[in-house]
Amino acid sequence: MNFLIEENRNLAPYCSMKAGGNAKYLVQPKSVSELCEAVAYFRSRDEKYIVVGNCSNLLFPDSGYDGAVIITCGIRGISYENGVITAHCGDSLSSLARVACENSRAGLEFCYGIPGTVGGGVYMNAGAYGGELSQYFIRGSFIDKNGEIVVIENNDMDFGYRHSRLNYEELILLSAEFSSVEGDRDAVRARMEELMAKRKASQPLEYPSCGSAFKRPAGHYAGALIEQCGLKGTSVGGAQVSVKHAGFVINTGNATATDVTELLSLVSDTVFNETGVRLEPEIRIIK
Ligand SMILES: Cc1cc2nc3c(=O)[nH]c(=O)nc-3n(C[C@H](O)[C@H](O)[C@H](O)COP(=O)(O)OP(=O)(O)OC[C@H]3O[C@@H](n4cnc5c(N)ncnc54)[C@H](O)[C@@H]3O)c2cc1C
Q: In CATH, what number does 5-71 get?
């Protein structure tokens, strides 16, 4: 066995919300082969497991996770050739943008500042400022439910708004190829810096959070509906609807996962009662 299994580890430090309980097992593979080995190991023992990236869109319950949490952030290796960027599941979305920029390629600037990995980004079809990963994803290499390695092309990924086939089918992304278009390096860098400045100006980055707490409902903006209902600043325990950006739920210091989920329900119910629009969490709430 080439990977270390830690037992009974607190997950909060690994999660961008800085909340949640303990994992029965925690594994941090450093390569695709270690990841494959770890998945096969827990499958063969009928042990529950979840493969995660930077945990920037995840909330584990305070009662913890009764299985193995496999963190992929150490599985990195990003390269560029002939307009195509190939990344491993643990590469950051920001590094995807940086490598595109270094090679004078445009399109992926929107990834800059999204604090997730390529694996979490493909799962979520992460996007911002008019771009989303599905526009650039060419194909990916995955472990399927039988433990086989399969290659899946963009057309077969069932991409939608913050949605992909990974949401409902057991598929673990190992690596992926992304397209890009020819660009001017300075202009690409300027666009990345412009988008980062927008994030800093509009988002409460000084507090732990999972980014946008709710998906954008058709025809509306979640933050605008929440603000319209007077919910900015509303708290449950240490969880609060950000005053800076009503679409964010932040941890003001000592929030539990239960505080966060109760606040999400309170906000969703209040917005529904007052506007008739039901907000669905974008945060993946693990049971
Ligand atoms: C301050 C802040 C700003 C944010 N801004 C944005 C934004 O602009 N746009 C946006 O879309 N999101 C944004 N997010 C949310 C988050 O960063 C994205 O959803 C990101 O794609 C999650 O990546 P991750 O690696 O952290 O995934 P995780 O949170 O670790 O996991 C998310 C899901 O992906 C699955 N997963 C992870 N890796 C793999 C893999 N290798 N194979 C299969 N499944 C996998 C997990 O099981 C889980 O279900 C923001 C979050 C924060 C905290």
A: 3.30.43.10
